[in-house]
Amino acid sequence: MIKKVKIFLKNLLYSHEFIDNQFLSFIQLKILSKVHQRKYYRIKIKSLEKTKILEKIIDGYFYESRTQNNQMIKVPDLNLYFFENALVNSYSSAVISKNILHYEVFNDKERYNEGFILYHSKKTAVYFLNEVETIEEGFFLAGNGSYNWYHWMIEILPKIIYFDTSHTKVILVNQSCQTIKSMADSLNLITENLNIKIVYLHPRKVYNVKKLFFINEVNKLMFNSENITFSDSYKYYFRKESLNNISNIFKSKITGTETCCKKLFLERKNTHRIAKNDKEIFTFLQQKGFVSADLRSLSFTEQINCLKNAKIIVGTTGASWTNLLFCEPSSYSIIFIPENFKNYRFFEEIGQMLNVKVDYLYYENGENDHDKSEFIIDIKNLENLLHEFEK
C-alpha cells in the first residue's frame, strides 16, 4: 500500500496536467526545484509569428506538397528578429525574452520540449536553469536537432545565407560544430569568406545573450510530435530556393578531378537500423556494379564528391540521406524505410525540389520504433525498382 502511494505521489509530482493552472503549477515547480536542486519556471508562450520583426527577409507562400496528400502547405515569411537579454540553449529553437517564450509553432501536434524546455502545453511552458553564461551579442545558428546532420544541413546552416553580418560578427553554434568534423567542415566552408567570430555553445548551458539576432525556420521537419503515427496534418515544408542555394554552394567547392562510383550503396556500420540480410543485399548490388560507402568515414568534401558523381544511390533511411543535397539532377535514389513511417516522405520532397528521383522500398519492423534493426529487405522488390529505372 505504501509503495502504491509513493508511486501515485511521484506520478502526481511529474504530471504535466497542472501546467495551465497557475496555483497548482506553482506548488508543483516549487517541490521539483527543491527535489532536483535547480530552478524550474512557468512561462507563457507567444507564437513567433506574433512577435515583432526586425526585418522581413523573404515573403512566405503556399505550395502543394505531393508527398503530404497534395495538401497546400504554408511556408511562413522568413524574418530576422532581435531580442534583448534573451535566454537560449543550443538544443532548443525557443527563445525566452521579457518573460515570454517565443517559438514558431508548426502545427498543434508539435512537441518541442528540447534543451531547457521541460514540457509545454499550447499556452504555457516549463523551463529550467542550471548554469547561465552571459554573451554580449550574436546570431543564433543552433536549435532543435543542431547536433544531427539532417537538421543541421537542411534547417539550421542555410540560415547563414540569409543573415547580414553587418548586424553582428558573432555566430552562435552548437558545440557539435567543434566536435563533429563534417559539421565543422560544412560551417567552415560556407563561412570561409565571412569576417566572423564563431562561439560554440555547450548543450548543458543556458546563455543570456544581451543582443540576440534570430531567423525563423528556413526549412522545417517537425522535430517531435505528440503522436508519430498521425497522418491528418502536415509535418514538413521546404523552400526550394534555399535547398538549391545550399546545394550549389557546396558543390561549387569541389574543384578537383577526383571521382566516385556511379552506383552507390550507403553502408551502415556499428549503428542501428541495419537489415538482417544486409550482406545479401550488398552481394546482389555488387553484381549490379554497386560500390559501398560509409559516409561517416569520409571527409565532408569526399561526401560531396561521392554523391555528386553517383547516378544511383541505395540504402536505409537515416541522416546520410541529407546528402541528397549534393546529387546531380536526374540521379536516382532508393531508400529503405519502415512500413509504418509512410507519412514521413520528406526525403522524396527534397528530391523533387532538387530534381532527384526518390523511391521508397518499405519493410516491416513490427512496431513504431524506426531505429530497430533485424528487418528484412525484399531483394526482388529492390531488383524491380532498379529495373524500372534502368530500362
UniProtKB/TrEMBL annotation:
Pfam families: Glyco_transf_61
Keyword Transmembrane helix recorded: no
Molecular function terms, GO-annotated: glycosyltransferase activity
Keywords: Glycoprotein, Glycosyltransferase, Transferase
Domain Glycosyltransferase 61 catalytic residues, every copy: 149-331
InterPro entries in the cross-refs: Glyco_transf_61_cat, Glycosyltransferase_61
Protein origin, superkingdom: Bacteria
Protein name: Glycosyltransferase 61 catalytic domain-containing protein
Protein's organism: Halpernia frigidisoli
